Amino acid sequence: MIYLVYGNDNTKKNEKVKSLALEAGIVRVPADQITQSAILTFSAQSQLFGSSPIVVIENALSEGDSIFNDELLSSVKNSPNIFVFLEDALTQVQIKKYKKYLEDTILCEKKEIPKAKVNAFVIADMFAKRDKVGTWTTYLDLIEKGEAPEAISGMLFWKIKTLLLARSVAPYSKNELEQASSKLVDIYHKAHGGDTDMKIALEQFILSTI
Questions:
Q1: Which pTM was predicted?
Q2: Of 131, 160, 193, 203, which sits most exposed with the smallest number of CB within 10 A?
């Protein structure tokens, strides 16, 4: 009988192989070392002296010149011994091609936990409240999650202009906001001229302005 265990989670794949083996041994055979005669020998191996080892064949079905034709696969399918085809990746077309020979198909994929997105507007609000620690830590979080420094600078510039248009600019003075606006423009031009690293310059701006 044949089991197909495939996917990018090697830990789960190996755990599945062990669960199929139970008390039997495991023989691993890389695709480039397997032959038809070896497969037929494993397929016909007697279980008179205890459980035969399960045969794990690695990345053989995904090979374009696979030795596993219909005749060989039929022989393996009808064997009382267990064969596990361990594959890193298979297309649905390939799986469909071999499905009639398989006892079971097990997908072992790593589940990626998406990183929580940080709302870029948060940094503008914290800047407006003159929350230095909050603005700085949010900035670092945004950078870590791949937000472009130019986008963050644009958000802060927009907030400063909004505050300047408001009747009350507290907790900043109008002069402080005008200077901050000029600094952001200066940082942008220097960064794009190759005279400074915008990521570092913007962090320094946050720490020195708030």
A1: 0.52
A2: 193
